[in-house]
Design goal:
single chain, alpha/beta, 6-stranded parallel sheet, binds 5'-deoxyadenosine, binds iron/sulfur cluster
């Protein structure tokens, strides 16, 4: 028997890329590859790239440059670029970087085994199609290894919203929902392999509309069906658009036992003038009303958001409106981004905000958000929460896991195993995590 070939995948960007990297690793497992976390040991290196913010392509080129010595030492080493930079600039990457053997866009990962066979014969391979066949069908029928307690599951991909700043509709393509039966069978399979906590992924996950028994299913219907899987304990979903937050989904937050009290619902800006220019088709007010309805359904729901500062034409007053909205909501988590021009998107052509102004706004925004996150985390102290243990902590006998609200929690629990649920009294809030004791 020949020794297995080694595969090193470096993943950038969003959680969907994490899911995709796992699927690619499994797909190449069928070609005799095992994963390694050391690029210098690898027979194949794959960069799973992200194109959402600036200098994405440059980062890829500089990372590739670092692999030149490895390839010189091991001429058989194959190097591939996957993900959204591959989709957007695949041909250019092939032209500029002779080191690269393979370029594969996010909708073609199921074709990786054939592409791998091709590059082994010395012929470079590029595939940035949006093929008709079911990528997931081919990617999920793979060997069944034991899994960690928390996993991602892609239910929907692509986006038809065309926010003026965003490349996703171009790199991931049009919105496509997977059929519910496939998702349910993948979920059951994950649970059989040890998964207890599932995060359903999609660029526009709450627009989910998979064709199943009795017609198109909504995300809420899918969540209710997942709720019936024995052994699955927790369900979350990300990322949602305010306009697709349907009544049945809000209702699920009120009454579906396994749906966690956590929602990532980006608003991007608190200024209606900017929201309009962003092509978001909602207002700050409609977003705040939506959050009121969510909190009426589930009073303890913890909100998470994304914010962009320095979008073209953003004034100090617009920025102040964003700060006001954040104050009004009280986020448990928030992710802040400095606007960066993405070639091919409408906002790239507009008058840009000065870089120094963007930096200064980003700092103020981050200060507010840090304060708010810490305050929300502090409200957990003294409360009894349920923690799903994921892995041993840094100290002997310590276990680390997540609360219902997704905060990291550390507990002294020498008997506990990953995958166990425990009631924990929270004793302390320390920077980015909580400490507690078993009840
Ligand atoms: N510039 C800055 N931030 C962006 N995002 C998406 N595109 C851009 C861009 N061009 C942010 C949005 C989105 C998150 C995933 O990334 O806030 O919700
Ligand atoms: Fe991008 Fe999200 Fe807007 Fe779609 S809804 S264009 S993924 S920011």
């Amino acid at each position: 028997m020949t020794a297995p070939k080694k595969l090193f995948i470096k993943t950038y960007g969003c959680q969907m890329n994490v899911y995709d990297s796992e699927r690619m690793s499994e797909a190449l497992g069928g070609q005799g590859y095992v994963a390694t976390d050391r690029p210098e040991d690898a027979d194949m290196i794959l960069l799973n790239t992200c194109h959402i913010r600036e200098r994405a392509a440059e980062k890829v080129y500089s990372e590739l440059g670092r692999y030149r010595v490895l390839k010189e030492a091991k001429p058989d080493l194959k190097i591939g670029v996957a993900g959204c930079v591959a989709q957007a600039e695949g041909a250019e990457i092939m032209r500029r970087q002779p080191l690269v053997d393979l370029v594969v866009g996010p909708q073609s990962y199921h074709r990786l085994p054939q592409m791998e066979a091709q590059i082994r014969t010395g012929v470079r391979a590029i595939d940035t199609d949006f093929p008709e066949e079911d990528k997931f069908e081919a990617l999920t029928a793979r060997p069944k290894a034991r899994r960690a307690p928390a996993a991602f599951l892609t239910v929907q991909e692509g986006c038809d919203k065309f926010c003026a700043f965003c490349v996703v509709p171009y790199t991931r393509g049009a919105e496509v929902s997977r059929p519910p039966e496939r998702i349910l069978s993948e979920a059951r399979d994950l649970v059989d392999r040890g998964v207890r906590d599932l995060t359903l992924l999609g660029q526009n996950v709450n627009a989910y509309h998979g064709a199943g028994a009795g017609g198109d299913w909504t995300l809420a219907r899918l969540i209710w069906a997942l709720n019936d899987i024995d052994g699955l304990e927790r369900i979350r979903f990300t990322t949602s658009h305010p306009n697709d937050m349907s009544d049945d989904l809000i209702e699920a937050h009120a009454s579906c036992p396994k749906l966690m009290p956590y929602l990532h619902l980006p608003v991007q800006s608190g200024s209606d003038r900017i929201l309009k220019r962003m092509n978001r088709s909602h207002t700050a007010e409609s977003y705040l009303r939506l959050i009121e309805r969510l909190r009426a359904a589930r009073p303890d729901i913890l909100m998470s958001g994304d914010f962009i500062v320095g979008f073209p034409e953003e004034t100090e007053a617009d920025f102040q409106a964003t700060l006001d909205l954040i104050e009004a909501v009280g986020y448990g988590y928030a992710y802040t981004f400095k606007y960066s021009t993405r070639p091919g998107t409408p906002a790239a052509e507009r008058v840009q905000v000065d870089e120094a102004v963007k930096d200064e706004r980003l700092q103020r925004l981050q200060a507010l958000i840090t304060r708010q996150q810490q305050a929300v985390q502090q409200t957990m102290v003294g409360r009894d929460l349920t923690v799903l243990f994921e892995k041993p902590g840094r100290f002997a006998g310590q276990m680390g896991g997540k609360s219902e609200y997704l905060h990291a929690v550390h507990v002294h629990a020498p008997e506990a195993q990953p995958g166990d649920l425990a009631r924990v009294r929270i004793t302390e809030s320390v920077r980015n995590s909580l400490a507690g004791v078993l009840i």
